[in-house]
Structures are given as C-alpha cells and as structure tokens.
Amino acid sequence: MWQELGIAFCLLLVLEGILPFLYPRGWRETFTQLLQLPDRHLRLIGLASMLLGTALLYLLH
C-alpha cells in the first residue's frame, strides 16, 4: 500500500507541475485570484475536488 501511495504522490507532483511549467503567467494570475477568495469558497472548491476524485477512483476501480 505504501508503494501505491508514493506513486500517487509522485503523479500528483507531476500533474501539478504541468501548468506552472507550460503557462507560468496564467498560473500566477489564477493563483493570485484564488488568494482573494473567501475561505468558504476555497473550502467548497476543495470539497468538490475531493468528491470528484473519490467518484473517479470509484468508477475506475
């Protein structure tokens, strides 16, 4: 199980690094806009992301 968790973490780092590498200016502008969002909106975005990821894992497994 630890090996799969390590693989998943490595893939997460690769995927998160794609946008800053390919489009740094747009990524920075988007990040700046995210910093200005209220905590409630950020929590809702995080919840939606977790639910979508869980649903996709369920469908793929």
Automatic annotation (TrEMBL):
<keyword id="KW-0472">Membrane</keyword>
<dbReference type="Pfam" id="PF09838">
    <property type="entry name" value="DUF2065"/>
</dbReference>
<keyword id="KW-0812">Transmembrane</keyword>
<protein>
    <submittedName>
        <fullName>DUF2065 domain-containing protein</fullName>
    </submittedName>
</protein>
<feature type="transmembrane region" description="Helical">
    <location>
        <begin position="6"/>
        <end position="23"/>
    </location>
</feature>
<feature type="transmembrane region" description="Helical">
    <location>
        <begin position="44"/>
        <end position="60"/>
    </location>
</feature>
<dbReference type="InterPro" id="IPR019201">
    <property type="entry name" value="DUF2065"/>
</dbReference>
<keyword id="KW-1133">Transmembrane helix</keyword>
